Amino acid sequence: MSSLTSALRRVLHHDNPATLSALARAAGVSGMLLSYVRRGEVNPSPETARKIARALATWERLCRRGRERIGRALREAPHA
Questions:
Q1: Is there a contact between 44 and 12 (Cβ–Cβ < 8 Å)?
Q2: What is the CA radius of gyration of the chain?
């Protein structure tokens, strides 16, 4: 198993913050393809891996912005 396949399978099994179908939609790839990759039935292409990485990077930015927004609101809120 290549390191690319191993890394993507680990993300799909353990490090994915959402459902496979949500990740597939965000990455613009087939949900069935991700399912096959996760089960080890198909090796991902570098392009598929890039699409997944871009989707996760987008989610990371969105989550960071949300975390920062909530943190600011908490700091500005009167303490109960």
A1: no
A2: 16
Side-chain half-sphere exposure of 79, counting CA atoms within 13 A: 1
When pLDDT is cut at 50, 70 and 90, the band that residue 80 belongs to is low
Cβ neighbours of residue 24 under 8 Å, at least 6 residues apart? 30, 31, 33, 34
- Give pLDDT tens digits for 27-55: 999 999 999 999 999 999 999 999 999 99
The domains located in the chain, with CATH, are 3-76 (1.10.260)
In the structure encoding, which two tokens stand for residue 60, read together? 């990371």
Predicted TM-score (pTM) above 0.85: no
38 in Cβ contact with 29 (< 8 Å): no
Report helix, strand or coil for 4.
Answer: helix
